[in-house]
Amino acid sequence: xxxxxxxxxxxxxxxxxxxxxxxxxxxxxxxxxxxxxxxxxxxxxxxxxxxxxxxxxxxxxxxxxxxxxxxxxxxxxxxxxxxxxxxxxxxxxxxxxxxxxxxxxxxxxxxxxxxxxxxxxxxxxxxxxxxxxxxxxxxxxxxxxxxxxxxxxxxxxxxxxxxxxxxxxxxxxxxxxxxxxxxxxxxxxxxxxxxxxxxxxxxxxxxxxxxxxxxxxxxxxxxx
Length: 224
Description:
Layout lengths: L2 H8 L6 H7 L11 H22 L5 H12 L1 H10 L10 H5 L6 H18 L2 H11 L1 H6 L9 H11 L6 E8 L6 E8 L4 E7 L2 H19 L1
Antiparallel strand pairs: 1-2, 2-3
């Protein structure tokens, strides 16, 4: 599959095409993979979206800005955008990951998209990657509203505890199983004053934390 089509889709032409190739390469394939670029792209995306929301909503609180941003940069949003850009057909995987359906795994799709953002930044400059991201997010940013918020379970749990003047939850990564490219993370969440503890497993620590928070919220609701 020609990368020129992908460049056309994301509206950016690389000077160093090897950066894009690395951004598409999963660690199951080789050591020259997207992990470091994903780390960079995550930070660049977060800042650009934060700045856009800061300028779009000059009168709303930091808390609301944070919750809106979390919706725009969360895994589900990135996965949807990656699918819209037809990124799955360009991802380079090792044989075992390919056989296990990794090309459609949400955690890989969101990581690859962030890695592409990191690659564009390395290939150009901040102004350029800002233009690329804002164009890709144009419709989402136009439609976002401070009055329509879908808070994630961790945010909901934290706000509930704060409203009751209780200690915040303690999240702890307690185990990792499986191979590097197909790892499962176990996270424990403890509410000291409510004497509640849960453990959940998922493909990322963040998702396991969210799953813990969701279960605790249900328990709290059931007991109230």
